[in-house]
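Model: You mentioned two targets. I'll fold them one after the other.
Researcher: Yes, keep them separate.
Model: Target one:
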Amino acid sequence: MEVNGSVSIIVPVYNEEKNLPLLLEAIDQALSELNRDSEIIAVNDGSSDGSGEILDELSNKFPDLKPIHFTRNFGQTAALSAGFEHAKGEIVIPMDADLQNDPRDIIKLLNKMEEGFDVVSGWRKNRQDKWLTRRLPSTVANKFISWMSGIQLHDFGCTLKAYKREFIQGIHLYGEMHRFVPVFASWQGAKVTEIPVNHHARKFGHSKYGLVRIVKVILDLIVIKFLVDFAVKPIYIFGGFGLLNFVGAFLAGCWAIYLKYWIGDSFIQTPLPLLVVMCTLIGFLSILIGLLAELMMRTYYESQQKPTFIIRKKNKS
């Protein structure tokens, strides 16, 4: 299956002034081997060094380069989101600006996409990072994400990926959710695969990532799991929790009656009556929250005319 179409390269940039000239030269060389229209969208995420000025200068040398400058540092997710929003290519490929991703792998991603895939994710199989602070936490996080999402990838954190445009349109990213774009795409019906890509040790600058990011990733994954599974019918989770509390109240009540009439323990001798009241109240509140959430989600979809489905193709009637 041949995949044609223009290509947009998205590069989030934060304090990478020494890497940018080499990176843009390598990207331009890789794109010159493609017989496609292309563009490079470099999003300056409020850099405090000379990255912004260098991008503007390089845009004169590379006509395909389109710099975007943020007013301050909003984070990698925001930078990628802005790049996705401004990209015009039919295939969108984000990559890091630190020269650890290899621009020559762009061709490998596109070749793999020609086999019929909608998303091709890079896998830094021989990752050139510190084992304790980067590789070990990443391995744990990747296994957890695969288990929670059902999407089996070795390296969700690798920025270098290729997406068909239709599967990232309308995706709004927050927090650290940029690494979950393949999950969003797969849940919308995209065919996702993974290929090994090159990974180089950082030559200039320093990493902006820390161990605290693992906690953020886990919390964001919980949010995504909830949105995907229950955004259309939130009553299922809130109502289910409410019904579970009603069952707990019923069992606690039966146990309290058994203790009183068969064992001889008074109601005031056990916390069971209090547990019955508490579970009953929580059950009613949970169902009420579910009903309110249902009204909010219906208003959200209907007011913005958002569809609850995606059509891949349509035959003529």
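Model: Target two:
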Amino acid sequence: MNHHRFRKVMLAFVLLLTSRGLTAAPPAAMVFPVQEQFVDCGGVLVYVKTVGKGEPLILLHGGPGATHNYLLPHLLPLARRNRLIFIDERGSGRSQKLEDPAGYTVEAMADDVEAVRKALGLGKVAVLGHSCGGVLAQAYALKYPGSLSLLILCSTFHSTQAMNEVFVKMKAKMPAELRATIDRMEAEGLFGKGKPYQQGRYPAEYAEAAWGLGYFPYLYGARPDPRFDPSGSAPDDWAVYREMWGSHGEFIIDGNLKSAEYADRLPSIKIPTLITVGDHDECDPSLSREMNRLIPGSRLVVFPNSGHMTFVDQPRMFLEAVDTFLHPAKGR
């Protein structure tokens, strides 16, 4: 049999096997286009990034004053079965800055989320909020319950007063020298120091003490980020941060975020709710247990050997918990 005839016979043989399902074609690669938009939310332009296929899942970042960037690429696998809608909250990231910081409130941000939902024609949505984004997710659920299908609260708190009590205990556990350094710098005032371009942010010594030595043990567990840098923990926008968190340091919330006192209102949430937290989270697990007790029928998942960045410490567990909650009948 000559070479040309042999190739024809083999091709016919492969086609026969394929037609009978006896050979496996390589799986087609899935492509997830990224779409970027700005939504005018009643006078403030909010940046929105969407990726993925399926039912919509809005993702709300923490901070306050951070951006959606730290959620990437960790949450990307959820795009296989959900359309992910990442939002940079007003004043943060690529969203419009306000001339008057008084407009940076969790209530106004909840209105922005609803404006995005309507503008994109999403219908009912699932919402996932991490850290302060979880506070925003609760505010949204309480104000717009009819817009929600599912609620996911990750490493967050429902009461500023309770969170401040966690900070008191956190400081009490610090080495005496570190606590004394932090107390001294907070008492002296943290802003308006150094060169002109440094006066609107924390001094480097305080950033190292608070975010590095103070917070780091509560941020990570199984997989501490080797690129972690305390100076990189600074908010994307200090005006947002100071208006909402306050100007008196990391271990007290006394900005307008103190309006977040939801304990007496959480029992009104009837939407299926998942609550996740690390076992040594900055937002202490006791807060998540209380939210679990207050929200009827809610489910609580505590990730082992995990700090505040649960999706970094325990990525498989985190994604499985969220994906199974979003798709209970199918699982992963």
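Researcher: Noted. Anything on target two?
Model: DSSP finds ten helices and eight strands in the chain.
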